[in-house]
Specification:
About 50% of the residues lie in helices and about 10% in strands. By secondary structure, it is α/β, with parallel strands linked by helices. It has a domain of about 90 residues: Orthogonal Bundle (Arc Repressor Mutant, subunit A), CATH 1.10.10. The strands form four sheets. It has a five-stranded parallel sheet. The chain has a three-stranded antiparallel sheet with strand order 5-6-7, with no helix packed on it. Helix 7 packs antiparallel against helix 10, helix 9 crosses helix 10 and helix 19 runs antiparallel to helix 23. The longest helix has 20 residues.
């Protein structure tokens, strides 16, 4: 397949990177993702790392240039507010404005709050087999590794002020400086006006409100840190970052950091802006608030490949991320996997499965979907997947339970999801006289049906009953089945459901509900 026919977004991004390297002498391509450990890692953090690895995969397909991924933690940032989803909040409150790496761990497991959160991040990224190198801002500053970049910022101090100041409010302009000294007496990150730059010594002079004295600090080795937008540019400069993506909320930040890179004579990375995840209320997911769902939440109800598919698809569209998207996404994964083997080699490269799961050949039978499993669990009040296996084996007599790991997983997840979200909300209603008449007609039709009748034939007969009873909207006829027979507002394609559940069992079920 020619490059121009590779149209999925990771290939589009990889081709941008190839152009960057046409006249570059660099020996490797450096990718970076950023993490602010002011709160626990959340699903958006995972999403950024995952999506970046997808671009790396596409880049590796198109090029032999070695790649490297840095996962960078801004753990020297001063904590401004207490996260809502951590214990010992008073401990955190007492240490506000200190670098995250200097605040005690409220969970009592590590030396600092950032070390706790960094370890959580590393562990759950490793759980998805991501290949990355972790970078800590505290280590980079204090080791002197950032000194070259800090000097470049210092030498262009006034030019950088001219970039940032027009974007700030009147009061903030009076005290803004790219450099934030870290108070030696309190350990707090200070946002203070710089009174003097000592050019030869590479020091800043400022009034320290904690000591009521003018003090001078070196810009090197962790005595100061940089403001966020300046820090971002400096990080690109020192680490040689070629590619970084960011959320829509950081568009302005990227633009300003880009201008700073040009000012210090460097080239900004290739950038991709993705849309944000929203919780069930349509609000932005926040790591300090802990709204939305976590990676762990998702993996209770479906496998990691379904989560990866959700992250892969439409990254430039804002997506609501809550539990009710899991069944739909899982079914999309199953269909894509079933279709993949029928694709040509070129078509496979334009399938999400090539990126997330092409090495795993295991599939589920085509007519089994997660939604079908949920409806089977609902109608028989399944306590375990064993109950559901009876229906599967009835439909597929030759199926080998032990050889179908993916199907086993699907049934297990289905029972857990059913118990959590469907069972507590089941609510049956009585049928109207017209609906009773329709259900009686359906019973008669099913009695005269053959076990060999296909799902589509049954579906057509149900449709014809609705037409004969002159429902104004045929959707009301199908909704009647869901609400009266299944106790829910939405449901499966009825022909397929009846085939799986069994004609005799459906007749018994209909009689129970209309009597």
């Amino acid at each position: 397949m020619t490059e121009k026919n590779l149209k999925l977004w990771p290939f589009v991004e990889a081709k941008k990177l190839l152009k960057r390297f046409e006249h570059s002498k660099k020996s490797e391509c450096v990718f970076q993702t950023g993490y602010g450990p002011s709160g626990l890692p959340h699903i958006g953090t995972f999403g950024e790392v995952f999506r970046t690895t997808m671009v790396i995969k596409a880049f590796k397909y198109l090029s032999d240039i070695p790649t490297k991924l840095f996962v960078f933690s801004d753990d020297m940032d001063g904590l401004r507010k207490v996260p809502q989803n951590v214990p010992n909040q008073e401990l955190i409150r007492e240490n506000l404005d200190k670098p995250l790496s200097s605040i005690p761990d409220p969970f009592g497991k590590f030396e600092s709050f950032s070390e706790h959160n960094n370890n959580m991040l590393i562990n759950f990224l490793k759980g998805f087999n991501f290949e990355f190198e972790f970078k800590s801002a505290t280590e980079q500053y204090k080791s002197g590794n950032f000194n070259k970049g800090l000097e470049a910022i210092f030498d262009n101090y006034d030019k950088i002020l001219n970039i940032i100041l027009p974007t700030l409010g009147k009061d903030r302009r009076l005290t803004y400086s790219p450099f934030l000294p870290i108070c030696k007496s309190t350990g707090k990150v200070l946002q203070v006006q710089i009174k003097e730059l000592k050019v030869k010594e590479k020091k800043i002079v400022f009034f320290n409100p904690n000591t009521n004295l003018d003090e001078e600090y070196s810009i090197f080795n962790g005595e100061c840190k940089l403001q966020w937008k300046v820090d971002w540019a400096m990080r690109w400069f020192v680490l040689g970052v070629d590619y970084e993506m960011n959320g829509k909320d950081l568009i302005e930040s990227f633009s300003l950091s880009n201008k700073i890179m040009k000012t210090i004579g460097a080239k900004s990375p290739v950038n991709y802006t993705y849309e944000l995840f929203l919780d069930e209320k349509g609000e932005k997911i926040s790591k300090s608030v802990g709204n939305g769902i976590s990676v762990g939440d998702w993996l209770r109800f479906s496998n990691n490949k379904s989560l990866e598919l959700f992250m892969f698809q439409n990254p430039n569209r804002a997506k609501r991320l809550f539990f009710d998207v899991i069944p739909k996404t899982t079914d999309e994964l199953l269909k894509l996997k079933n279709d993949f083997d029928n694709f040509s080699r070129d078509e496979r490269l334009n399938s999400p499965i090539w990126f997330i799961d092409h090495e795993n050949k295991e599939k589920t039978p085509e007519k089994i979907t997660f939604n079908m499993v949920l409806n089977l669990a609902s109608v028989c009040n399944a306590d375990s997947s064993e109950v559901l296996w009876g229906f599967i084996e009835n439909y597929y007599p030759k199926i080998n339970k032990k050889e179908n790991k993916l199907l086993n997983e699907l049934l297990e997840y289905g029972v857990v999801y059913y118990k959590q979200f469907i069972l507590p909300n089941k609510k049956y209603r009585n049928p109207t006289e017209k609906e009773k008449e329709g259900f009686k007609k359906l019973i008669d039709i099913l009695k005269n049906s053959s076990a060999n009748d296909e799902a589509e034939e049954i579906q057509t007969k149900i449709y014809e009953i609705g037409m004969s009873l002159e429902f104004k909207n045929l959707k009301d006829w199908f909704s009647a089945f869901y609400q009266v027979i299944l106790g829910q507002d939405q449901g499966p394609r009825l022909g397929s459901f009846i085939k799986f559940y069994g004609i005799e069992k459906t007749i018994i079920l209909l009689k129970e509900k209309i009597n």
